[in-house]
Hints:
This protein is an all-beta fold. It has no helices and 39 strands. It has a single domain (45-420), classed as 7 Propeller (Methylamine Dehydrogenase, Chain H), CATH 2.130.10.10.
Amino acid sequence: xxxxxxxxxxxxxxxxxxxxxxxxxxxxxxxxxxxxxxxxxxxxxxxxxxxxxxxxxxxxxxxxxxxxxxxxxxxxxxxxxxxxxxxxxxxxxxxxxxxxxxxxxxxxxxxxxxxxxxxxxxxxxxxxxxxxxxxxxxxxxxxxxxxxxxxxxxxxxxxxxxxxxxxxxxxxxxxxxxxxxxxxxxxxxxxxxxxxxxxxxxxxxxxxxxxxxxxxxxxxxxxxxxxxxxxxxxxxxxxxxxxxxxxxxxxxxxxxxxxxxxxxxxxxxxxxxxxxxxxxxxxxxxxxxxxxxxxxxxxxxxxxxxxxxxxxxxxxxxxxxxxxxxxxxxxxxxxxxxxxxxxxxxxxxxxxxxxxxxxxxxxxxxxxxxxxxxxxxxxxxxxxxxxxxxxxxxxxxxxxxxxxxxxxxxxxxxxxxxxxxx
Length: 422
């Protein structure tokens, strides 16, 4: 058991303190070392469902997902919290923040003036129509009526806030009546659609075009998106596309890869689940599922790609699980953290039903790899596997984790945990 930052205090629901506005979001924070494998004691617990998303606003952690109950760190007090709640980063105390959201919250992003953006499958917030997108005050859980963005259908799966811009990705086809398939940029204060920004994503032959996840580079000049699409405009871009966002619009770059053209198991219109830029923006890492059927395919793997040059790119390295899905990735400099329901790393010759292959190492549910080689690091806290880790959030204090199980680092941690810096 590890007591880090502040020891767990007497538990009570407390109001959110008044804080200044938040800085623009960035790619994952650089860390000088790998985080501890011993989770902090003071984090609260989500008692059911799945945690899909995490955000930090000031000293407040906001947690989104599909759940109904949370408990304090001692599990002596239980609170009704449907799909979203908040707690103190340094003390773990559960906040009074409790907006009424009638569907899952799949994505979160810090907003200005101590607010948070929510994206998901909800249709109403605090009883008012607000489909898929909302901005909520952390002071009193109220909905910003001035932020008037609504998706036409589907959900929002990924959000990034950058100053006056808010990027959103998901299964939608339009926002506020403006057609934008899977990816959009909005005014962060009003929710007005940025008319100049259109990624023009299509998926000829696919059941539904969607963006599963995306990230914006630390300098804000690039956006990498993954999902169920095959083209951007007239250019072939199978499951992954890199855009230049330094100008007014979304300019498709000449960067591309054919690595994800081979299909995985039938039924996967996309097998890419998350993508993240490195803290210096020089490379990305993609986490994938898909049921590995061949060591030559990138199903059930993580792969690094360089992003500073144009043209065709092959992976710098590939980390293979041998048939288990990866859903989440975080990059801190010394480590690339990977989460899913994997059993092994370094397992290119293993298969889902026949156990590990030569050289495989046990990394149940969570692990880290060397950013230069892709080989497993010694960091091995373990977690109960479940479906998998759905959210990582790198903060200066460490690594926050959201999932669907209640064992992390060989301790009870209900669906939320924090691995502090050593």
